[in-house]
Amino acid sequence: MSPARARTSLLEIVTAGRELLEVGGLDAVTMLAVAERVGVRAPSLYKWLPNRAALIASIASAALHDLEHQLSPFVSDPDPVMGLRSVADAFRAFAHANPRTYGLLFMDLPAGARPPAEDNLLAATPLLALTERLVGPDRNLEAARLMTAFAHGFVSMELSGAFQLGGDVDEAFRYGVDVLVGALASRPVPPI
Amino acid sequence: MSPARARTSLLEIVTAGRELLEVGGLDAVTMLAVAERVGVRAPSLYKWLPNRAALIASIASAALHDLEHQLSPFVSDPDPVMGLRSVADAFRAFAHANPRTYGLLFMDLPAGARPPAEDNLLAATPLLALTERLVGPDRNLEAARLMTAFAHGFVSMELSGAFQLGGDVDEAFRYGVDVLVGALASRPVPPI
DNA sequence: ACCTGAACACCGTTCAAGT
DNA sequence: ACCTGAACACCGTTCAAGT
């Protein structure tokens, strides 16, 4: 008689997926493992999500919202150069704290597993606000892309172990950010 | 009586895997699909490779050798700045020609699917030879890492569609490379 | 020495039946 | 309205038996 009451939720499912991802990598994000973690049988997950690809996409989407939350406080820094340094550091800190989730954000995912494009834009908003103050509205997008390219390239090499030999990685990152910020502030930036 | 003669080879298997990867992504690199492509049944592949992870690692390894081959001609450029530009362009061209294979090289792969570390070093050799001529032997490694970080970050964003809005992407890449090369040639580079 | 069919475990997904 | 067990297709991998 009485219809079944929800024993889980989309939020709980996505959170379980993120935890499994960080602990065991993408292969560990199994419908069975997620179901077990939220106290339900695997087929019940399909009440909340159409398939596993949508679960992956939801994990990525949640991570992009988190990232935006980590970066947005620095938008209001009175000095845009300091703000950009802080955003770059916070971006890198996010990747260090959630390495596998970070990897997911820049992975070549199958179409169904990609988060909505708006979420990528959302996460880029804090950076765009600061580059606009540095280079003006016309070359804003290009400047933000160069910064993101460098930060992502640096962090992804760092996470994949390319900097194993040690040394002051923090200092090297700061150096690269400063070189780019300095160039953007002083030279005309070409259109992308 | 007569023992069975080899009907395939490791090279043929790895080549089939690369083709399947480029056409259908990593999910399409199935032991069944590879076997079918080389004219053998799936269990026979285990005569040549211990498991699917080793196949992925072999694909990545082969790609790193190819990449080294694309980059090495520019080592002998009389002007190291021109040589670095050419290496950067060839790196990007390789990624454009083999986007999914390129993605594999910087993917966070499970331990068994990672290519041997020597192969990563091999692919970096041409760049290292040129940065040495630009900044000297002491800051060589650091300079090469900053260049690689930028190039990889730029290319991976480009491939993932982050530059969809169009414009002169070639020019933006050249601009970023020039900024870094210029900074490396004129400033002291901090240790990584 | 390499190849094969048969078999097993594991996972994503569907669906009819329960409350 | 959501949950479940049973079932199916697909894939990685093992192994005994073939030549």
List keywords for this structure.
homodimer; 192 residues; mainly alpha; Arc Repressor Mutant, subunit A; Tetracycline Repressor, domain 2; 2 domains; elongated; DNA-binding
Query: In CATH, what is the homologous superfamily of the largest domain in chain A?
Result: Tetracycline Repressor, domain 2
Main structural class of chain A:
mainly alpha
Strand count, sense and closure of the main sheet of chain A? none
Number of continuous helical runs of chain A: 8
Label the CATH architecture of the largest domain in chain A. Answer: Orthogonal Bundle
Determine the mean pLDDT of chain A: 90
- What is the percentage of strand-forming residues of chain A? under 5%
Radius of gyration of chain A: 19 Å
User: How many domains make up the coordinates of chain A?
Assistant: 2
The chain pair with the largest interface is:
A-B, 45 and 43 residues
Oligomer state of the chains in this structure: homodimer
Helical fraction of chain A: 55-70%
Low-confidence stretches of chain A: none
How would you sum up the global shape of chain A?
elongated
* Annotated CATH topology of the largest domain in chain A: Tetracycline Repressor, domain 2
How many distinct beta strands of chain A? 0
CATH class of the largest domain in chain A: Mainly Alpha
Q: How far apart, in Å, are the first and last alpha carbons of chain A?
A: 62 Å
Question: What string gives the helices and strands of chain A in order?
Answer: HHHHHHHH
